[in-house]
């Protein structure tokens, strides 16, 4: 059996495009501690009819929904200020996840909030950045 090629999450970064270049420039928002990449799904429509084979429902694929992404950061003034600016932007923003193996996942989205986690006496302050993705994400493996 061949050795696993799996990688761990340590070293993954999350950034947004600050200059479209060329080359495009991406800037990290802050200290990301958790990244939920977009999870595209495809909707279906029921096309069952009275003569459907074997009395079984039939479906066809319809539109794809690019889903949402969510990133949790350690709370710093700079990161929260950047998140606030992204939240107030009316247009879409380009985002990039860069994986430890050199692969990237690029997508565009709209920041839909900037909720903070509960502040507790013995825990790290954190906030999340939920993003509604528009268009399909593009994954590029390391060259």
Describe, in plain words, how this protein is organized in 3D.
The chain is mainly beta and 143 residues long. 8% of the residues lie in helices and 45% in strands. A seven-stranded antiparallel sheet has the order 2-1-7-8-9-6-3, with helices on one face. Strands 4-5 form a two-stranded antiparallel ribbon. A hairpin with a 5-residue loop joins strand 1 (13-19) and strand 2 (25-28). The longest helix is centred in the middle third of the chain and has 12 residues, at 77-88. It is globular, with a radius of gyration of 19 Å. The chain starts with 12 loop residues before the first strand and ends with a strand. The mean pLDDT is 95.
Key descriptive features of the protein:
globular; mainly beta; 143 residues; 9 strands; 1 helix; two-stranded antiparallel ribbon
How would you characterize the largest beta sheet?
A: 7 strands, antiparallel
Anisotropy-based shape: globular
Which blocks of ≥5 consecutive residues have pLDDT under 50?
A: none
The whole-number mean of residue pLDDT values reads 95
- Strand fraction equals over 45%
**Helicity level:** under 10%
Number of strands: 9
* Class inferred from helices and paired strands: mainly beta
What's the Cα radius of gyration? 19 Å
Helix and strand run? EEEEEEHEEE
Sequence of strands across the biggest β-sheet: 2-1-7-8-9-6-3
Distance between the termini: 25 Å
Q: With helices defined by DSSP (H or I, 4 residues minimum), what is the helix count?
A: 1
């Amino acid at each position: 059996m061949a050795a696993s090629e799996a990688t761990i999450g340590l070293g993954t970064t999350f950034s947004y495009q600050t200059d479209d270049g060329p080359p495009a420039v991406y800037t990290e928002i802050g200290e990301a501690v958790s990244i939920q990449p977009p999870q595209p799904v495809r909707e279906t429509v029921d096309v069952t009819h009275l003569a459907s084979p074997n009395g079984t429902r039939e479906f066809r694929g319809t539109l794809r929904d690019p889903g949402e992404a969510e990133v949790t950061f350690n709370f710093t003034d700079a990161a929260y200020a950047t998140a606030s600016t992204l939240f107030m932007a009316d247009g879409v923003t380009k985002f990039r996840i860069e994986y430890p193996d050199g692969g990237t996942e690029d997508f565009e989205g709209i920041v839909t909030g900037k909720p903070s986690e509960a502040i507790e006496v013995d825990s790290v302050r954190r906030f999340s950045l939920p993003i509604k993705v528009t268009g399909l994400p593009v994954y590029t493996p390391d060259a």
